[in-house]
Design a protein that fits this description.
The chain has 335 residues and is an all-alpha fold. Helices cover 79% and strands 0% of the residues. Helix 2 (29-52) packs antiparallel against helix 3, helix 4 (81-98) crosses helix 13 (288-315) and helix 12 runs antiparallel to helix 13 (288-315). It is elongated, with a radius of gyration of 26 Å.
Length: 335
């Protein structure tokens, strides 16, 4: 393609489209029809330029022009309660379901690693000594010690809000930083696994592993599942940078990235539930079996939500991405 000839042949159409866009609502019916036609042709021109003769300045100009024309032609789409309902019943569970081949192995490997590290810490006094002084370890693990009082050290509402904020931040970091070749996600995941392993190891060495699990399981099942989903999705996003599959790397990252942002919102709600359990159920006076039962029910409800609603939506073709009309991040294609 001769770029100069191409620009000379079509710059009049682009200038006319820009002029019509500046008129806004003052267009006549004929001008509105002309705008639609020019929008379609300019989108085709942009596609040709991107595939045959990419020129950064010209491509940027036409991309902006096509985006403005698209907004004018399709109108501004406002979010509604129907969108929120669809997201919660289809989009979010479908995205979690579709990424299950990433977060389930992530969960299994993380739990196994935590168990092995916890056993190692619990059976090796020299490792425990490297963590803290003996008197500090006793203060952590004794009846009424810091591991137990931690969950009742603040008012339930403020504690739940603090836990939710911290966990939501960790999940969001896994989702956002996954694009950096997975490395930050692996580190965040390792830190969480290490914290869990230290608690398991120290409390088991003190003969109080049952107490520790009775405190962790009510909220920890759902909380850790949400973290594993975020980590698995972040790893999937990072792998997309390495192997985008049949799509171009930009298109694949745009698709996975939009789904990941949606999952961040959904997982924030899941972590809100686990935060409420941690703030109000874990430190409550309920029997241990009752607290653990609440945690198990919450976990099973989430898994059923993902596999029933999410599986149904995924089989219907939902990827957790935006609707076609909302995918402004995609490059325009030829008509």
């Amino acid at each position: 393609m001769d770029l100069d000839v191409f620009v000379t042949a079509h710059h009049g159409e682009w200038d006319r489209l820009d002029h019509l866009l500046r008129r806004g609502r003052r267009m006549t019916g004929e001008e509105a029809d002309e705008l639609v036609a020019l929008y379609q042709r300019t989108a085709t021109h942009l596609s040709l330029l991107q595939s045959s003769a990419p020129d950064p300045a010209l491509t940027a100009r036409l991309t902006q022009l096509v985006a403005r024309a698209r907004a004018t032609v399709t109108g501004t789409r406002r979010a509604s309660w129907r969108d929120a309902t669809r997201f919660l019943t289809e989009g979010f569970p479908a995205a979690v379901y579709r990424s299950r081949h990433w977060w389930i192995p992530t969960a299994v490997l993380s739990v196994l690693l935590a168990a092995v590290m916890g056993w190692w810490i619990g059976t090796h006094p020299e490792v425990q000594a490297s963590i803290a002084a003996p008197e500090d370890l006793r203060a952590l693990t004794r009846p009424g010690g810091e591991y137990e009082t931690y969950y009742s050290s603040h008012p339930a509402a403020s504690f739940a809000a603090q836990v939710w904020t911290n966990n939501a931040r960790a999940a969001a970091m896994c989702l956002v930083l996954g694009a950096f070749l997975c490395i930050p996600v692996v580190w965040i995941l390792f830190v969480n696994v290490l914290n869990l392993a230290v608690g398991v190891g120290l409390m088991s060495s003190a003969g109080r592993l049952d107490t520790f699990l009775g405190l962790v399981l009510p909220h920890g099942l759902l909380e850790l599942t949400a973290v594993f989903v975020a980590a698995g999705t972040g790893l999937r996003l990072g792998w997309t940078v390495i192997d985008p599959g049949p799509l171009s790397r930009r298109a694949a990252l745009a698709q996975r990235g939009r789904a990941a942002l949606g999952m961040a919102l959904g997982l924030a709600l899941v972590l809100l539930v686990s935060g409420l359990i941690e703030g109000f159920v874990t430190p409550s006076g309920l029997p241990t079996w009752a607290r653990i039962t609440i945690g198990v029910v919450a976990e099973l409800a989430f898994l059923a939500y993902v596999y029933v609603l999410g599986g149904r939506a995924a089989r219907a073709g939902d990827t957790g991405d935006l609707d076609a009309e909302g995918r402004s991040a995609d490059a325009p294609s030829a008509w």
